[in-house]
Amino acid sequence: MTNLLYGINFDVLYLMVVIASMVTMFSTELMAVVPIATKFKSDKTRINVLSYIVPVWEVVGTFFVLWLVDMENIIPTLMPSISYALFPLFAVFIFFLVVRNSFIIYAEFVWHENKHFDERKLYIVYTIATFIMGIMALSILAAISSGYGVHLYGFGTESAIPYSFSYTNFSVFYSNLGVIGFIIGALILANGIGMVFYRLTDINSAIGRFLPLMLVIIGLAIFMPSYYSITAKDYTVNSALIVIPIVLALIIPVLYAFKQTNSIASYKPFIILITIIALTFIELREYPYVFGNANISAYIPAVTTDSSMEYLAFLISLFGGLWLVLMMIYYGYVSNHRIAGLIPKRPEEKKSAAPKQ
Amino acid sequence: MFNISYPVWDSAMFAYTISSHILLVSLSMGLAIMVTIAEFLALKKKDKYYDTLAYKLSKALVIFFAVGTASGTVMAMELFLFWPTFMKLVGEVSMGPFYVEVFSFLLEAIALPMYVYFWKDFKNRWEHWGLSLAVTVGTYLSAFTVTEINAWMNTPNGFNVATYLTTGKVTDVNAFAPFITASTAAEELHMSGAVYYAGIAMILGYLIYKYMKTKNMPEKMIYRRGINIAAVFMILDIIYLGITGSDELSTLMVIEPIKYTALELDLHATVGTSFATMAPERLFGVLINHKLSYSLSLPYAQSLLAFPTTFGKGSIPGLIPLTTYNGVTDYGVWPPSIVHDTLDLMVGFGVLMGFYWLYVVVQYFRKKDPLSNKLTLLGGIVVAIMGVFTMEDGWYTAEVGRVPYIIRSPTPGGVMVNGHLLVIHGLPQYGTMTIAQAASTSPIVFPLGIAIIIFYIIIFPVTFYFAGKVMKLSNVEEDLKLGEDDIKMEEERKSRKGVAAKAGMR
């Protein structure tokens, strides 16, 4: 079985990297939910969080489409069954995606003279929408990884039954401790890493330096056994790979705890890169099966696309991926060397600057 | 649940979403190219008014892009959720264009935030302008690749259609083929012009309205430049649209004769050998018991338009012979006859708009300022509304013209095998996949659809109101100062470069 991992198809590996990139990019928004919702008026939130979120949320949205299209491209025969089985999760996700996009853009450009709503209220709606999207995204990933409560038809040995009969029993899915642990653990982890990513704690105090590390350890302690349990079946051959993401996740808060290294720890491209690598290894751990505990497991090599499409996907992935990386490097360069200037000033700042009458 | 079938509900939902989405797409594409042209002119002519125009429009662009991105993602998910069978086939055969589209979308999504949010931080203004060009290219490529999929739906290729219809298996896949199908060229050419025309029409309408309303001279100068760019673009585009529209119809006649005959309501074939046998152009009318009534007829016109090089000599197919097999006509495969009226409306509005632009050009050459005449300005607003309506109407005509199929046939008139129409269980195959076969039958499509309908009803007016408000609230003097600074910055950079070059410090 281990050989399967060495012989992994490039397109499948690419899909894993796409999923890892999408989850990473979206996580950076999920990490911002708590600081925006609780400390909106703090300068740290405005300078460290909003100046990052405001331009990058537009890029994050496109990663969802990249993921979806890549899934359609790589595993087209499995997608209709997934579509029917996970329809409610996707439906809630897209509904709140529209809410998220609309409200963040309204918040960015809201004018101060209006009486009905202010910047803070609009950002709060954005954070609620983002949080619900996060829960849905984690649920989708947990469903694909575990298959609890999922009934898939229309492919493989179950192909005699149409895929429109595929469904998920959500009471079974959400009553599974592993699934709950997966979601809660991931949220705690995201908040721990988020404190480093946005430099939200006071690095001059011991609590400030070690709080992210504590949260990451708690998050890992809940997430990793949960993930292991929901994906474990009789194919635990890649289990050793789980060590890599654990080490990578710990590196970030550990570096943050020391004065000499805390600036590199919170260097955003560094965290993004580390997270993408960590998540890719997490995905590799369960290869070659997904929906392990569903009525039928999906064996990835059996549902991947045919050779002609595979070759085209390889070419587009290669050139498109390189192009994307170059664009992201340029974006990183521009955003790190210049300061975003369109975040509206707070009304009280304007008032104080105006001459008294 | 609502006494409505899944295919009808799924189609109605998708039509609703896409007709809303293309408004945002065309506006975003129009704004992107307007911003690129305006900043280019600002740098070339060293004109702060153009720079300010680009800045103001870029704010609207980012707002519409934000909602457009959400809408685009909804569309991607809707395709996956509402049309699983269709997407399965697309995934197995023609995913290539969609895949390229995502990277175009990413190009646009990464370049736009840099362009707008870091506006003041670029010392090299041409580098900044390059980002707007990247946004324009990204938006255009996105539209181009999505249209490639649409063309594939009209004339599918890249797999063995006969085997698919007979066995349900996808064989002989050539994943590169769907990039260029029989209908791709004509469709792309016409789409490019139509989408830009509608997008720029919306901007023109807004600019004229603001121009008429404002008393502030510098603001008038900004809007005037915007109107000039939009008008020149639209004048050239309307000529282009006339040519490509005619080409599109001629192409349809050859490669999609069922759609063509439904659009023209040519029930019987015509062999135009002389004036006496030439096909007339039938304007409007309705089908009653499969016969055309209440239509106006322009003698010879259809043949002359279809075969201009042979002065109308050529054969025009008929809907009845095309859909008759063994003496039985299958009316169920006829597209709804309303597409004939929507086509006539589209062409009629196109002609009216052409006359308006001709009048503007004549006024210009008579050295009369079209912007000083209130009626001409009001006419511009009417043309803007007509432009948007015409694009929606054209899209409706093109899509409903494919009904009842979601994927038509690779060969003209139906799926041909060795020159004969494929017949399965006694039924001739006029298309590859029907809408009914492709639609999702998951009950959740109903609540999700209702949620999307309500949401679009709220989000659209709010976004347009919001964008208008944001553009109105920006301070003209401050914006002009920004424009002036941008021009100065570029001048200084150039002079520094010049000094360095002279000193041999390359």
What's the number of extended β-strand segments of chain A? Answer: 4
Number of helices of chain B: 16
Q: List low-pLDDT spans of chain A.
A: 339-357
The overall average pLDDT of chain B, rounded, is 90
Give me the secondary-structure topology:
The complex is a heterodimer of chains A (357) and B (506).
Chain A: H1 2-6, H2 10-38, H3 43-74, H4 79-85, H5 87-109, H6 119-146, E1 150-151, E2 167-168, H7 170-174, H8 177-197, H9 206-231, H10 243-256, H11 262-265, H12 268-286, E3 289-290, E4 298-299, H13 300-303, H14 307-337, H15 347-353
Antiparallel strand pairs in A: 1-2, 3-4
Helix pairs in contact in A: 2-3, 2-6, 2-8, 2-12, 3-5, 5-6, 6-8, 8-9, 9-10, 10-12
Chain B: H1 6-45, H2 48-82, H3 84-93, H4 95-117, H5 125-154, H6 161-167, H7 184-213, H8 217-255, H9 257-264, E1 270-272, E2 281-283, E3 286-288, E4 291-293, E5 296-298, H10 301-306, E6 314-316, H11 319-322, E7 324-325, E8 328-329, H12 338-365, H13 374-400, E9 405-407, E10 416-417, E11 420-421, E12 423-424, E13 427-428, E14 433-434, H14 435-438, H15 445-473, H16 476-502
Antiparallel strand pairs in B: 1-6, 2-5, 3-4, 7-8, 9-14, 10-11, 12-13
Helix pairs in contact in B: 1-2, 1-5, 1-7, 1-13, 1-15, 2-4, 2-8, 2-15, 2-16, 4-5, 5-7, 7-8, 7-13, 8-9, 8-12, 12-13
Characterize the structure shown.
The complex is a heterodimer of chains A (357) and B (506). With 357 residues, chain A is mainly alpha-helical. Chain A has a domain at 2-176 and 278-348. Chain A is built from 15 helices and 4 strands. Chain A has helices at residues 2-6, 10-38, 43-74, 79-85, 87-109, 119-146, 170-174, 177-197, 206-231, 243-256, 262-265, 268-286, 300-303, 307-337, 347-353; strands at 150-151, 167-168, 289-290, 298-299. In chain A, the strands form 2 sheets. A two-stranded antiparallel sheet of chain A has the order 1-2. In chain A, strand 3 and strand 4 form a beta hairpin. In chain A, helix 5 (87-109) runs antiparallel to helix 6 (119-146). Residues 339-357 of chain A have low confidence and may be disordered. Chain B is mainly α. Among the domains of chain B are: 17-181 and 443-506, no CATH class; 190-254 and 337-384. Chain B has 16 helices and 14 strands. Chain B has helices at residues 6-45, 48-82, 84-93, 95-117, 125-154, 161-167, 184-213, 217-255, 257-264, 301-306, 319-322, 338-365, 374-400, 435-438, 445-473, 476-502; strands at residues 270-272, 281-283, 286-288, 291-293, 296-298, 314-316, 324-325, 328-329, 405-407, 416-417, 420-421, 423-424, 427-428, 433-434. In chain B, the strands form 7 sheets. A two-stranded antiparallel ribbon of chain B has the order 1-6. Chain B has a two-stranded antiparallel sheet with strand order 2-5. Chains A and B meet through helix 3, helix 4, helix 5 and helix 14 of A and helix 2, helix 3, helix 4 and helix 15 of B.
